[in-house]
Amino acid sequence: MENMTGFRRFGTMLDCSRNAVMNVSSLKKWIDITADMGFNTLMLYTEDTYEVEGHPYFGYMRGRYTQKELKEINDYAAGKGMELIPCIQTLAHFNAIVHWPEYAPHVDTDDILLAGDEKVYELIDNMFSSISKCFTSRIINIGMDEAHMIGRGRYYDLHGDADRSQILVNHLCRVAEIGKKYGFTFLMWSDMFFRLATGGDYYKKDAPICEEVKKQIPDNVELIYWDYYSQDKSHYNRMLAAHDRIKEGTWFAGGLWSWRGVAPHNGFSMKATAAALKSCRERGVKDVFLTLWGDDGGECSKFALLPSLFCASKLAKGVTKMSEIKSEFQEKFGIDFQRFMLLDLPGTPGGRTDKIVNPDKYLLYNDCFTGLLDSTLAGGEGEQYAKCARRLSLLKKEESWGYLFTTAGALCQVLAIKAELGIKTRTVYKERDQKALSALIKEYKQLSKKLEAFYRAYKEQWFVENKPHGFDIQDIRIGGLMARVKSCTERLQDLHNGKVDVIEELEEAQLDFCGGGMDFAKEHIEYITWSHIASANVL
Description:
The chain contains 21 helices and 10 strands. It has helices at about 25-35, 65-80, 120-130, 155-160, 165-180, 190-200, 210-215, 235-245, 265-280, 305-315, 320-335, 335-340, 360-365, 380-395, 400-420, 420-430, 435-465, 470-495, 505, 520-525, 530-535, and strands spanning about 10-15, 40-45, 85, 105-110, 110-115, 140, 185-190, 220-225, 250-255, 285-290.
């Protein structure tokens, strides 16, 4: 399976579990694009979003793929010379199914299945059985990452204190044994071996891995080292060497940053990927793929990462000159590389390439009155977003990708008003200037119109690319934001008309969101959890 990149497998992984379940036509489009670039592998990350016979609540109302759909996708990929590899979970990240009473007795804690529970292994057997009917590949990624609390919930109640590394290995061996019935060989994310040895730190230097644990890892299980964060090749070298000390044949998973809000982070993705691919090449890694996650709602279009996706494909082939990469991008896609990069929202704090910051999300949901994240502002953000909106408006009629620029532009028009609105509101409130208050109310009403336009654009983008399931969360979030802006407008009108004398939220002193005395206006922050951004109250 050696291809033009020099790697045995060079692929992508699409997160189809965080509400945005890519529809079949978009998956085919993704396969066409990536196969043409030289990618020969695709993983579909599906926690519960695939059909499992005998388990009607597994992926219920979540847009799960039917077996017919998976077979269709598998056959289409095969026709393009691409291996479709199932990427599932068999331990943690089951936050959706734990909602259902049917599965509650078989959960350890949080989103972690109960190791040692026979009903859990019956479920996993059924998962493997269903998957085996849909995929040609006999490789399966069984997950097992980020099970931080393994053995500390129901397992502890049943069995008492136990070696948590041993719990993990025992569960792995049992899962691998079940999978053998279906002819599978296995991949698993490697972080838990490191976290259990270091008290939670995956990337700690010289992590001590128990020799007895290493011996128990099944021969037909290969590890995946995942890392999306560093731009330092030596960091990747060190981590790959550490993996070799556990087990040879490690796969590498990098990241194209699609999981910090509506906007992508192509700039950072390209820098991190360049360092990672150099390290993989030097250390003889044979299998590499790039993840596109959808944390906290799957808000970002995966196609918005086209620049970093293309750049990665060229870097893998040994093309390192950005001028050449940009020229070939325009030739292939008919749009200037730098214009496509406008989706990174250049000119705003989110345009940084040395780190990930995402004010496009946290300022969108930052409340106009409580302003939990107002302290992160340096000033001038509104005009920066206004400039972005003007640039993006020139691209909304672009033939293939205009809908992406329309959505990004509509978001920037919202943020041009909203980014600094909370600070302005407190200033006007404190001064009690009636003329300024009247002008402020007009801004709030204009914001409502811009939010409605953004909602329409974003809804169109979602339904072009994804199944409808999951958009209910966007309805709740954006709809709730629109309702809140309307509510704040009405209360300001009441203040203006003398119906009320105070607005309690605006009377209360604001604290820095993260505390500690840091100057977040200079450093900027990365924060994605909607439920914590939108309110200090319980959601």
